[in-house]
């Protein structure tokens, strides 16, 4: 037996003692990850078969151990964080279920009368206006039902309400479309804005990505809970 074969035989014997098979099993399922036990076996084999004239530096050995520990720790942390994210998503959905039947304020121009037979909302002005009007129209026919003259308003949120709706709209079965016109008085003319209105929550769901709770809003469909400006219980 030549020197090469002797060396190979010695190496195979060492690996066999460490529990590392040197034969390939055709039916074996290949491993996608190197586990801690595999790493320690390979590290031991590396130490026992290193060049005696150029042994591994202690710092290199410690660095390899630290690197493996870091990777293992990050993997466990990732799994833990993923589990926490799933639990938070479930908690969001469970919490949002409590709001079923209640109303939220969201950006939009469709509204229905609340339990008191009224429509409430708010507009957000980027700067002070000299004239502000909110027109209420039938959502189906476009017929003008009422115009609310709010006059001059300061910048920021300004609330509005229509409390004397016609009888056929007070139960919320008929939708009302809002048209907001604002004159800032700076030479740019009258501008149209999208108001913020209250709408009823009729369902909840969990988003496929991000885990954000989704609210099914009447007339608006699925809306992220992050878009909600205000809850009204």
Number of strands: 12
Quickly count the helices: 3
Residue share in β-strands? 25-35%
CATH class of one domain: Mainly Beta
Rounded mean pLDDT score: 77
Overall structural class, as computed from helix and strand content, comes to: alpha+beta
The shape is elongated
> Which topology of one domain does CATH recognise?
Immunoglobulin-like
CATH architecture of one domain: Sandwich
**How far apart are the termini?**
88 Å
Q: Give me the Rg, rounded.
A: 35 Å
Low-pLDDT segments: none
Q: What is the share of helical residues?
A: 25-40%
Instruction: Give the SSE string.
Output: HHHEEEEEEEEEEEE
Question: Major β-sheet, in short?
Answer: 7 strands, antiparallel
What do these coordinates show?
With 233 residues, this protein is α+β, with helices and mostly antiparallel strands. Among the domains are: 93-108 and 199-233, no CATH class; 109-194, Immunoglobulin-like, CATH 2.60.40. The chain is built from 3 helices and 12 strands, in the order H-H-H-E-E-E-E-E-E-E-E-E-E-E-E. It has helices spanning 3-17, 36-48, 58-97; strands at 103-107, 110-111, 119-125, 131-138, 144-149, 156-162, 176-183, 190-193, 196-206, 213-217, 221-224, 230-232. Strands 1, 3, 6, 9, 10, 11 and 12 form a 7-stranded antiparallel β-sheet that branches. Strands 2, 4, 5, 7 and 8 form a 5-stranded antiparallel β-sheet that branches. The protein is elongated. The relative contact order is 0.15.
